[in-house]
Amino acid sequence: MFDTTARVWERAGEVIVAPPVPVRPFIDTLKTRCRSARASSFGWVIPADDAETAVALLRAHFPVVQDARQVAPQPPPFVDGGCEDPFRRLDLIAVLTPAAPALRAIYHDRHEARAAFAQLAAYDPTLPAQLGLAESLENQWVIAYAAQRFWHELLSGLAQLVHGVVLADGTLRETITAPELMEYWHRTRRQICGAVPEHTGQRWYPTVATLPIWIAGVLACLEGPAFTLDESSATVFRHLPPWPLRLPSELFRLEVKDAVHWPVSVCVLPGSQVGDGQDVLLHLSAVGGLSKNRALWATILDGRREPLVVRVGKQRYAPRRIEGRRPYVSDWNDQPLHASGLSHLALTHRSAFEPELGQAFVHLAGNDAAGAPDLVHFAQQLSRAISLPFDLAWAAQLWAYGTTSDDDATPLITPLPSIGCQGYWVLADEPRWMRLIIAVQHGVAPEDLRDDDLVITDIGAALRLDDVIEQAGEGGDEGMRDEG
Predict the structure, then answer these.
(1) What is the DSSP string of 101-138?
(2) Cα distances (Å, whole numbers) of residue 349 to 197, 274, 321, 368, 401
(3) Is the pLDDT score of 288 beyond 50?
(4) In whole angstroms, what is the distance from residue 142 CA to residue 430 CA?
(5) Residue of higher predicted confidence among 105 and 116
(6) What is the pTM of this model?
């Protein structure tokens, strides 16, 4: 590994410098700065006059150095640096984007798309080392093990920093704020790399001075259009097209016994949220041959066949169809797709379009990092599913309260296992919606709501039911006599 210990020791009046792996920048610089250096089977042999220069080069190119000389100078203190503008190096996004596949796979496959790293070195020779990379011999690249873990952890949790808002035209505006991004970077560094070292050469450790480069790297690894800086609000933003055009770059195969095809998006209701404990299919959009899509359609709708198997991340599901009369809305393309000539099948639970009163429903969002809901559509769904009136402008607040987890009860809105989209299961049959609606109406948090507020106010005179019927009957008779 790149961050394995590099060693320095003395022998016969000369100094031996032994890097853990051959790194071309170190070798080229050493040959230039220390012309008397000669290679051996156990490292580089350096005359005593050039020893300090060689050790300084070793410390500059390798993060972990052990100096075993009898009179070894104190290693220089570690300089963490500072960062006032985390978005200062967004110009590197275009340079780092070709390396994004290699960076995303850096923890699992260190040899994927390594040629892209050479482009980073051509743009700025100091750039790879600041990201934990180093060029070895024969166009090979080595990576610090701690840098692998740091990259993997940064990219794994980056989606939680993305805030998405669906606009009136259906497009999605995604934003990331500078304070949240900096706090996330510092927290991840502390979790993976520990506390700041006292001296150089102790271990690989990313400095705060390189934070703008790391931010450009993680933003380049997000699929879709590049982010743009909004200087007035210290945020970066981008616009994504309306769903379902926000599709993943890689499609996953579904393991279906009698039909192999490419799914575009899938949403499953886990058995843990269903009474009988069996997984349920809520949405499927698939592209394939017409005969294979027809076989898939029959497999889903025929409850007697073996259910298909869906992989969402590392979890496997075997969803069955939902029982009932016409539970799905299906759609087929009238003509073959223009580019591929294939068939497109879309099968979605009817509650996504026509929720029933007092019944839970599914809300489908796009395949964006934040899983941003379509709040206008959510408000329309909720207004049909519950009997309480509310202002549709309260959708954002109701969604925020509904997704908040409570230790005592299941959240009213729960994310569902999905690929190619993001589904949410909304429990519309819960009486807690009344408390939330009244809390939003009064402008207070639901936990601060008083019991006196949970009353129904009668408007008009209070009359017995039989009096209302009698007055209505008298009015009707009078009207009939007048007409006569």
Answers:
(1) HHHHTTTT-TTTTTHHHHHHHHH-TTHHHHTTEEE-ST
(2) 55, 15, 9, 21, 25
(3) yes
(4) 55
(5) 105
(6) 0.65
